Amino acid sequence: MGIDSTATSSNALQSICYKRGSLQLLDQRKLPLETVYLDIHSASGGWFAIRDMVVRGAPAIAIAAALSLAVETFNLEAFQGSPADSASFLVEKLEYLVSSRPTAVNLSDAATKLKEVVLKASSTFSEAKDVFQAYIEAAEIMLEDDVASNKAIGFYGASSIQSQLKDVNNLSILTHCNTGSLATAGYGTALGVIRALHEQGILEHAYCTETRPFNQGSRLTAFELVHEKIPATLIADSAAAALMKAGRVHGVIVGADRVAANGDTANKIGTYSLALCAKHHNIPFYVAAPLTSIDLSLSSGDDIVIEERSPKELLNSRGGLGEQVAASGISVWNPAFDVTPADLIAGIITEKGVITKAGKEAFDIKGFAQRAASV
């Protein structure tokens, strides 16, 4: 029958609208002034949508990639080949999709899991169409699971922050980049925690950074906060330290595109600066991310590959889409992410609970992941 992601009673924004055989992605490059959905018909369409930032946010990237191939698969003309041929077709497409944004581990994690489904199906079924059907159903389950995961992150994060900041009656939380419904299949990670705090009536104010140079904070997070009627204020990235010094921030919550085995996290450029500022002002700094963002193959953040983006994002206005604003001939360094060391992080909020140091000097990421997998 298939999943219908548009059939929801939530008032949250949706970056992904899916029905079996049809996928639309909200073009986030045009927000907040225009709301335009693009039809995605194939894995190639998904690849370009991810690379060109039509869709962004580690969880949303993974789901969009999986569903773009599901749509192409559903709408294939008569496929001439064996189950092994169909599996090879899908595996090749998944590997291609992973190349669109290399830093977000959720994408490679989703591709790995979907490859396992495909290879198992190819050895089980006698017809190619059944392998394709198995892939489509697995991709749709990922869409469902992401929403449930985000709501659990919101619950655990809100509970943990309330416990740590129990002496604060009305919380003010600062966040960076965009980690809400627009960055996921729905609800959000770090912004999901803020949403949960607001729903419980204990959030007084949210602050969001503009998040230069692509302005995900001013264009997207501010848009979500206004849409959800959460009291909020937009600040320049460079104003965060002054805001903390003024005593107007009680906690910082950000997302993550990848978490190394020691707890170092890669997130949108500027996150590391916020963590340093929070440490100096004795403000708890949290990372909210699903378990799929954890990469136990990396011993530390030093091993995380940092994507560098087009110089145009700095040279031109509107994240590279507008007129030139910088001097011609100037060189540009434009990393999309930076790495925050684990010792600056108070806790990593996941859908299975909050990873803390529990009096130790370091996170036990591997142990937590193993326990979570056994539940």
SSE layout and pairings?
Blueprint: E1 16-19, E2 22-26, E3 37-40, H1 43-51, H2 58-74, H3 83-98, H4 105-124, H5 128-164, E4 171-175, H6 190-199, E5 203-209, H7 216-227, E6 232-235, H8 240-245, E7 251-254, E8 258-260, E9 265-268, H9 271-280, E10 285-288, E11 294-295, H10 312-315, H11 317-320, E12 337-340, E13 347-350, E14 353-355, H12 365-374
Parallel strand pairs: 4-5, 4-7, 5-6, 7-10, 8-11, 10-13
Antiparallel strand pairs: 1-2, 2-3, 8-9, 9-12, 13-14
Helix pairs in contact: 1-2, 1-3, 2-3, 2-4, 2-5, 3-4, 3-5, 4-5, 5-6
Describe, in plain words, how this protein is organized in 3D.
The chain has 375 residues and is of the alpha/beta class. The chain folds into 2 domains: 16-147, translation initiation factor eif-2b, domain 1 (Four Helix Bundle (Hemerythrin (Met), subunit A)); 150-374, Rossmann fold. The chain is 41% helix and 15% strand. The chain has a 7-stranded mixed sheet with strand order 6-5-4-7-10-13-14. The chain has a 4-stranded mixed sheet with strand order 11-8-9-12, covered by helices on one side. The chain has a 3-stranded antiparallel sheet with strand order 1-2-3, with helices on one face. Helix 2 (58-74) runs antiparallel to helix 5 and helix 4 (105-124) runs antiparallel to helix 5 (128-164). The longest helix is centred in the middle third of the chain and has 37 residues, at 128-164. The radius of gyration is 20 Å and the shape is globular. It starts with 15 loop residues before the first strand and ends with a helix.
